[in-house]
Each structure stands twice: as C-alpha cells, then as structure tokens.
Design a protein that fits this description.
Helix content is about 35%, strand content about 10%. It contains 14 helices and 16 strands. Strands 3-2-1-14 form a four-stranded antiparallel β-sheet. α8 packs across α9. The longest helix is centred in the N-terminal third of the chain and has 22 residues. About 45% of the residues are buried.
Length: about 475
C-alpha cells in the first residue's frame, strides 16, 4: 500500500486540531466567540424600579373578603427602562409598606429584593404583608420576562406539560349550563356534566348535602346553589354564599353532617363514573376524631383529594397522625404562606398535595422554591383560586412543575373585562401562550386608581462579608 506521508501528516494535524477545538474534521469554521464588550451588551442592563401604583378592579370591596387574604387589587411596577410589570394582591397599606424596600432597586434582582423585603421590617411578614410582597414579586418577574421577550415558564425550565388540568370552586363550572338548567340538576348530573366538559375534578365542600331525588334535585330543607354544589344553601340564604357560610350564626351539626357527606359523595361518584374524579374541601370544619371518621368513610369512593381536613393551626401535629389512619389523598394549605410553614409535612410525605398559591406564598420567587421542595418528595401542587393576574402566574409556574398539578379556576372561557389579554381556557383546561412575561395586560381606564409610591427607603438589613443579606 502506498502511503503519502505528507498528506497523512496534514490530515492527522487537522484531526488533532479538531479534537482540541471541539469541532468536526471538515466542518465549516465556527464564528469566533463574541468579545467581552459584545457579551456585556447582551446582558440585561440594570433597570431601576421608579414607581409602584395600586388600583382597584371593578366592583372591588375594600372591606370585603377580597381585601384579606384573597385580594385581587392590581399592582403596577414601573421602571426607568419604560417596562411596566403587572401584579395582583395586597392592600394599599401593605403594598406601601413593602414598596419602600423595592423602589430604587434593580428590578431584575428578584431574589435580593425578596430577601430585603422579608428582613427589612421589625419582624418577618405576616400573611397580609406576604400577600403584598407576592403582588410586587409577580410584577418584577413580569418585567424580567418582558425584557427578555420570553414567556415566564421558559425561565423556569420550560414546559413540563402541555396544559393545566382544572376544577371549579362551584363544582359545576359557572357558565357551563344555563342557571335554570343548573338549578334543576342533582349531584349526579352535575358531576357528569363537569366530567363531560373536560374538567379533571368535580369539587364540593363540607357543607354539601345529598340530592333528594325530588324534582329539581333540591336538597331537603334548602335550595340548590351553583356556588357549593347541589345541597348548599342558595346565595344570600343563611349559611349560603353571601349569607354567612357558618360565620353568621348558622348551626353546623358535625356529627349529622358526616352521614350526609357520605350520602352525597356516593351520588357524586355515580355521576363522575368509575374513572372520573371528585374532591371535597372540609374547610377545617371538623375536629380530629371527626376528620378521621369522615375520611375513612370516604375511602371506598376514592376522592382525588381531601382539602383542609383539620384546623390549620393543628396541621403540623395532627395531619401526620391522620395520614396513618386514612388512605385518602390529603391536600391542606390554602391558607399557608412560605415554604417554612409546611415543608416538614412535605418532607415527611404526610401530605399528597400542597395548596400553595400566588400571591399568598410571597410571589413567584418563593413559589419556585416550593416547587423544588415538592418535586424532591413527589408531592403535587393544587393552587387555590386567586385573582386573574395571579392565576396567570399559576399557569407559568405550574407549566414548569414536573409533578402532579390541578388548578382551581373559576373564569371558565369567559373574558376578564379589564384584561384585554388573559389565559386561554378550553375543554376544561388552561393552555399556555407565547406572550412575554405573564402574558397578560390590563386596561387602566377600567381600574380605579388608588395611590402611587415613588420613594424608596434604605432598609436596616445587613450584608455579610460574602454579600448575602441578614437580619438587622
């Protein structure tokens, strides 16, 4: 065999050079890496928060249940780059308190801002101040997504699913059937209609009564209501939506109610079918021994989950015991704040779903950490309903969460009047979009301006030698 040594040497030199540079022999030459100035230009330039504005949405009741802890107040965060972030939550006074630690900071430093707000006060935020922090944090993440021109779920790892499964607070989603037709439906029919519409779960709460089988499906001693499933008192009636729900002096017979719940869930299971899903929110109505009884009696009907079976202040001590006494999936926590409140229950796998919600937990910055804890221990997340802007935050975070997800959602396919851009809901599911940031917009003309904040105040939080923040 004749060997051209010069050609071989040239070929070997090319191969060795390719190995060193990481390129394939014969491949087209790679473009040189950008210079340091070019790389610097590609970075996000510091963008200072200049103003925070708060608005009430239409029909907002500042002294109603919307104010605390389920506020849907709109919070707009303006920057010197001309980018405005949209958030939702808090109240004027709590947002004002939080804003002093945010204005003047780089909007992209979401973690540092979160830590400063948490530590700048005399004591750590309670749930009301945490709600305001969550509203501003939502807006800061919206700014970041808009600056990068990407939907937020891309910043959280991209899509781990193609859509978000839903359930409605009212059981039968509002607007699914005409009101007169809904009033004539029993639990079985309502559950069946919800499954047919593509919703993952039919939901009721601990105030449910079984259908009687009489015309209209009305329960004994009451009328049907969309808000809590058949068997709940009608809106405005004692114990019904707007009528107290047990807060206005109505009587709740917990012993009798256990029997009625089991009769009701038998009807729901029949309507949902053997592979359909239903869930129940016990709303902390029962003491421990009663919660054990009702959970064990529900086991044959296989609920998707049971929410808040005992009192919130007793979750840490009583839920681990309840976990050992029943097989129903447990989903506590719609009133929780940061991960510190429930991480022991997640780590010990005493719960199956965490009801972590925005902005309640303190915003997206904290939700991402909750997602990491839950994913580590394979605990699902079932966010509670919230305002429409924060609901968009649920979509983005839950799209990126690799564990099981179910979202409480009451808007259905109806538009939000003051939001020209919102989420897409069809077939009982929420679908992602490619708009940057949260992917929503608001029409300020339809909002009531309340106040604005423009002055930041240096916080008392210290910096360690390594640059991290610590309490004053």
């Amino acid at each position: 065999m004749n060997l051209d040594r010069r050609r071989f040497a040239q070929s070997l030199s090319g191969v060795l050079g390719a190995i060193v540079t990481g390129s394939r022999p014969g491949a087209a030459p790679q473009a040189p890496a950008p210079s340091s100035p070019a790389r610097a230009e590609a970075r996000l330039s510091p963008t200072k928060v200049t103003r925070i504005r708060v608005f009430y949405p239409p029909n907002y009741n500042a002294n109603g249940p919307q104010a605390f802890p389920q506020s849907n107040m709109v919070v707009l965060v303006d920057t010197d780059a001309g980018i405005t972030g949209i958030g939702q939550g808090g109240s004027p006074d709590t947002v004002r308190n939080v804003a002093r630690s945010v204005i003047g900071k780089n909007a992209f430093d979401t973690e540092m801002i979160w830590q400063a707000v948490f530590m700048d006060g005399f004591y750590s935020p309670g749930k009301e101040r945490l709600h305001a922090l969550g509203a501003i944090d939502l807006a800061l993440w919206d700014i970041k997504g808009k600056a990068l021109n990407v939907p937020l779920y891309q910043l959280f790892g991209g899509k781990a699913r193609e859509h978000i499964e839903l359930y409605a607070t009212s059981g039968l989603p509002m607007g699914l059937v005409p009101p007169d037709e809904a009033a004539a439906m029993g639990l079985k029919e309502r559950a069946a209609a919800t499954m047919k519409a593509g919703y993952r779960v039919y939901r009721v709460d601990g105030g449910i009564l079984p259908s009687t089988g009489r015309a209209g499906g009305a329960p004994a001693g009451g009328s049907t209501a969309q808000g809590r499933g058949t068997g709940a008192p009608a809106a405005g009636a004692p114990g019904g939506p707007g009528g107290g729900g047990g807060r206005g002096g109505s009587i709740f017979d917990s012993r009798s109610r256990i029997r009625q719940i089991i009769q009701a869930v038998e009807q729901i299971r029949e309507g949902a079918g053997p592979d359909g899903n239903w869930m129940i929110d016990l709303h902390q109505k029962f003491d421990f021994h009663e919660a054990v009884e009702v959970c064990r009696l529900m086991e044959p009907y296989r609920p998707f989950c049971v929410e808040d079976p005992v009192r919130e202040e007793q979750f840490r001590t009583q839920i681990p015991k309840l976990r050992l006494l029943t097989t129903v999936p447990l989903a506590p926590g719609e009133e929780w704040g940061t991960r510190a409140e429930f991480s022991p229950l997640v780590e010990q796998r005493d719960i199956d779903f965490a009801r972590a919600s925005l902005p309640n937990v303190g915003g997206i910055t904290e939700m991402l950490k909750i997602m990491a804890v839950c994913d580590t221990h394979k605990v699902g997340i079932v966010p509670h309903f919230t305002g429409p802007i924060a609901t968009a935050g649920h979509m983005h975070t839950m799209m990126a969460f690799p564990g099981q997800v179910l979202m409480e959602y009451n808007q259905g396919e109806r538009p939000v009047p003051y939001m020209p851009e919102f989420l897409e809901c069809r077939n009982g599911k929420v679908w992602p979009n490619d708009r940057p940031g949260l992917g929503v917009s608001v029409d300020e003309k339809q909002l009531k301006f309340i106040e604005e904040m423009t002055e930041g105040v240096p916080g008392v939080t210290h910096r360690r030698l390594d640059g991290s923040l610590t309490h004053w």
